[in-house]
């Protein structure tokens, strides 16, 4: 996976960079929101915890995006994580409302 | 699989480091200088009269008289008592804004003359504070853009550190390897030394740095979970930083509550630390109270704050016991580790050196990348050779620029308008000039020229100080003005370091010409 002159490879690499930066940021935000919604009596502190963990999540996502074999799998990974976190946030907000 | 994994991590390590390398280098250098913010400030305000032997009571009487005269309408008053880091009395107050008189709401800080109690008039300077703030506001861009750029740089640095650990399987074995005079190999070894030894520091400083700006970068989380808008964010910040207090009754009657009574009570409760600040907060309102801050060099936690409040029967004292939330407590700890305010002078130097190691790690990483690029082809592409030349200007121009910043404090006319801003302009102008010099000048001796220039600038600083103020090194020694003396001697220490570096580079380059080896630096 080096910088290649071939347009397809260059596109795949650019796509991965975009996935890592933008997708990673989205996942970091969603993870922070999910963590802040975990049951606990100090809501504000939960948000602080979520925001603090978000940078660890961001780093892990970026590394994962560049670890998987193809750009296609990286796309799958990022979209699955986003979907899972959306689901989790929904579940948590439902259980909170109950 | 394993080889491929390491290869892709190597790619990520390279590019996450290279893309923002110059901004990161700037952040590390100016941030490291921030550990000496107060010391730099004292040097840049040579008019300040130091006083270590004044009694707290006397100092407070002088300060209260001045505050009453100049800041009667201010809601917050602070008095900073002489300490080893700031050996002078300083008053500060929050000036309320008044649109009619065109007065801006802002903090004023004024040092006092210990003998007369008058406000010392000092030159208009950016001081140590503006210098250290550069490392997250980047000065010429709007603050928000500065925070986002530094956060992005910090994230890339974090990724660079983690991938760096991944690609170095034998990280500790490699730490003890040094192959001198082997070109690229030597630079790799240097890079490893600067990275591995202070790795815990690098990880701590990078993560906590990104974390400190999380209110800006992760603001969407606050928006969705707490509330939108400036007001709500402010409220969130206050709520998240909530301190827990133990409240005790004191012997003081509400009518007797003033700074003196609070101070003597506080001194009985905390006997082993010196008082650093005294504050009168929310003056003239129901929540008016007095704060007594003790010196923070005793521990990582800022638990040494006492608040005195008048209640109906007695005055009550609130003793901070820590943050209400667990995450907030971790945040607090990391913030203090990042700022190192608790560090004494020795640990402060360790902090400073670790920060410079970080800058050296980034610089050597950049040099390795450039060497690899130039080795690929016989004649490197124009873009690469441009970056290589600019790189010299950026890396060595910054220390020169900081030196010029110090010089400008002594050499710009004292009555010049916008003087404080011009000091910062001088810093950036010097940096840009160094970069231009490297772009225009085509000789191979740029490293040497810049290293000798840096040595010269730092050598001259104490001399200019001697000529323009009465703080010559001899005077500082005689007056036991250790901060002034320490600053001047440190400048000479840097001059010697740059001189030594120049000598090493010139010897190596002379050798490489004879043996037709690659030059030491690219």
Automatic annotation (TrEMBL), chain A:
Keywords: Membrane, Transmembrane, Transmembrane helix. It comes from the Bacteria. The chain crosses the membrane at residues 12-35, 47-68, 75-93. This is Iron transporter.
């Amino acid at each position: 996976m080096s910088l290649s002159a071939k347009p397809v490879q260059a596109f795949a690499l650019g796509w991965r960079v975009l996935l890592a930066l933008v997708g990673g940021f989205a996942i970091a935000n969603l993870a922070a929101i999910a963590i802040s919604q975990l049951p606990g009596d100090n809501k504000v502190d939960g948000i602080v915890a979520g925001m603090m963990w978000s940078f660890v999540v961001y780093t892990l996502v970026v590394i994962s995006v560049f670890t998987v074999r193809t750009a296609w799998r990286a796309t799958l990974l990022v979209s699955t994580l986003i979907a899972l976190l959306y689901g989790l946030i929904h579940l948590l907000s439902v259980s909170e409302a109950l | 699989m394993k080889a491929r994994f390491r290869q892709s991590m190597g790619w990520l390590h390279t590019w996450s480091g290279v893309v923002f390398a110059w901004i990161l280098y700037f952040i590390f250098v100016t941030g490291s200088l921030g550990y000496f913010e107060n010391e730099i400030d004292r040097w840049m305000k040579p008019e300040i009269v130091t006083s270590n032997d004044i009694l707290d009571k006397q100092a407070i009487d002088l300060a209260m008289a001045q505050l009453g005269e100049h800041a009667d309408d201010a809601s917050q008053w602070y008095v900073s008592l002489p300490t080893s880091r700031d050996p002078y009395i300083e008053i500060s107050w929050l000036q309320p804004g008044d649109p009619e008189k065109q007065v801006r709401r802002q903090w004023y800080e004024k040092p006092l003359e210990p003998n007369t109690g008058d406000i010392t008039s000092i030159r208009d300077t950016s001081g140590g504070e503006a210098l250290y703030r550069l490392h997250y506001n980047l000065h010429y861009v709007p603050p928000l853009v500065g925070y986002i750029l530094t956060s992005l740089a910090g994230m890339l640095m974090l990724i660079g550190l983690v991938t760096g650990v991944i690609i170095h399987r034998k990280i500790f074995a490699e730490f003890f390897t040094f192959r001198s005079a082997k070109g690229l190999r030597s630079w790799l070894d240097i890079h490893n030394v600067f990275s591995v030894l202070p790795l815990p520091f690098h990880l701590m400083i990078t993560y906590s740095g990104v974390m400190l700006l999380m209110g800006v970068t992760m603001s969407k989380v606050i928006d969705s979970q707490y509330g939108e808008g400036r007001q709500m964010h402010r409220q969130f910040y206050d709520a998240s930083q909530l301190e827990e207090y133990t409240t005790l009754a004191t012997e003081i009657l509400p009518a007797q509550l003033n700074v003196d009574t609070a101070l003597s009570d506080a001194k009985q409760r905390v006997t082993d630390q010196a008082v650093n600040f005294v504050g009168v907060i929310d003056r003239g309102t129901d929540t008016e109270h007095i704060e007594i801050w003790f010196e923070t060099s005793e521990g990582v936690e800022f638990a040494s704050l006492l608040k005195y409040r008048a209640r109906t029967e007695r005055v009550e004292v609130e003793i901070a016991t820590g943050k209400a939330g667990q995450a907030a407590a971790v945040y607090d700890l990391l913030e203090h580790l990042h700022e190192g305010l608790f560090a004494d002078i020795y640990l402060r130097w360790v902090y400073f050196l670790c920060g410079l190691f970080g800058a050296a790690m980034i610089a050597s990483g950049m040099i390795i990348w450039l060497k690899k690029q130039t080795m690929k082809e016989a004649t490197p592409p124009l873009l690469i050779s441009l970056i290589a030349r600019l790189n010299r200007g950026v890396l060595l121009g910054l220390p020169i620029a900081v030196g010029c910043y110090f010089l400008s404090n002594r050499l710009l006319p004292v009555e010049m308008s916008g003087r404080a801003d011009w000091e910062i302009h001088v810093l950036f102008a010097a940096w840009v000039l160094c970069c231009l010099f490297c772009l225009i000048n085509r000789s191979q001796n740029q490293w040497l020229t810049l290293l000798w220039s840096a040595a010269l600038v730092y050598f001259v600083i104490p001399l200019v100080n001697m000529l323009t103020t009465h703080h010559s090194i001899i005077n500082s020694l005689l007056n036991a003005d250790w901060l002034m003396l320490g600053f001047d001697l440190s400048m000479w220490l840097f001059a010697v370091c740059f001189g030594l570096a120049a000598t090493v580079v010139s010897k190596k380059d002379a050798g490489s010409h004879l043996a037709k080896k690659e030059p030491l630096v690219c």
